[in-house]
Amino acid sequence: MDISGIRTNYNDRTNLFLEDEIEVKEPFHLFEKWFSIVRNNPTVIEPNAMCLSTATKNGIPSARFVLCKGYSKEGFRFFTHYTSRKGRELEENPNCALTFYWAFCNRSVRIEGPVEKLPFSAADEYFQSRPYQSQIGALCSNQSHPIESRDILAHKEHELKSLYGEGGVPRPPQWGGYIVRPHTIEFWQGQTDRIHDRIRFRKGVPADGVFTHEGADGWVYERLAP
Question: Which of 29, 109, 192, 204 lies deepest, with the highest CB count within 10 Å?
């Protein structure tokens, strides 16, 4: 099927993304500004949904959507099973990429950096804040591993609910959190003429004052060709 004719209008020249509009020349302040716009838009169902891309030690990639459960200048946090495919790949190769995409405003943020496991105390705190059904779901799932049928999950769910009431579900020992500590964050804003706006922040890179400019908190920034 030929789908080459599918085309969507984005922004136009009246809504450019320019360096002068970045009040603080470091990426976390800008991310908070963009994210605040998205999370306050009622048409966006999960503003914190992000595509997590991992790779094996041999460089074989895989990607899936997860939910960001917190961010700060330290990095971006998410939770999952350590024994899942993503968990196993992060164990082999502790580097990943995150991508946020918000269609209503034609904006995307790409994040790259190494990953570290969060302390179990952080995993315990977040797990206890989850809804009861989500806690049971995490406990009954050996994520990413083959199972015989959906009935297996239903039986396990029923069994666990008979063992644990609300407020008493233990965190699975193989379930925990990660923090991605970025060295690169790119902000993208789509333009209808496909001359998109791309501004990239990098850490630990010298600024040449022509293409790459000195930012704040050890970051440099540069505009990329679309």
Answer: 109
Catalytic residue among 150, 194, 198, 223: 194
Q: Kindly give the pairing relationship between strand 184-189 and strand 219-223.
A: unpaired
**∠ CA(59), CA(64), CA(66), 5° rounding?**
125
Is beta strand 219-223 parallel, antiparallel or unpaired with respect to 212-214?
A: antiparallel
Q: Are 10 and 190 in contact (CB under 8 A)?
A: yes
**Does the pTM exceed 0.85?**
yes
The residue type at 85: R
CA distances from 164 to 103, 140, 171, 178, 202 (A): 40, 12, 12, 26, 47
- Asked if 144 and 81 count as a contact pair (C-beta separation under 8 A), the reply is yes
Q: Is 110 marked active-site?
A: no
Kindly give the confidence (pLDDT) of every residue in the chain, 226 residues in length, as a single tens digit, with 9 standing for 90 and above: 998 888 888 888 889 999 999 999 999 999 999 999 999 999 999 999 999 999 999 999 999 999 999 999 999 999 999 999 999 999 999 999 999 999 999 999 999 999 999 999 999 999 999 999 999 999 998 899 999 999 999 999 999 999 999 999 999 999 999 999 999 999 999 999 999 999 999 999 999 999 999 999 999 999 999 9
CA–CA separation, 68 vs 48, rounded Å?
A: 5
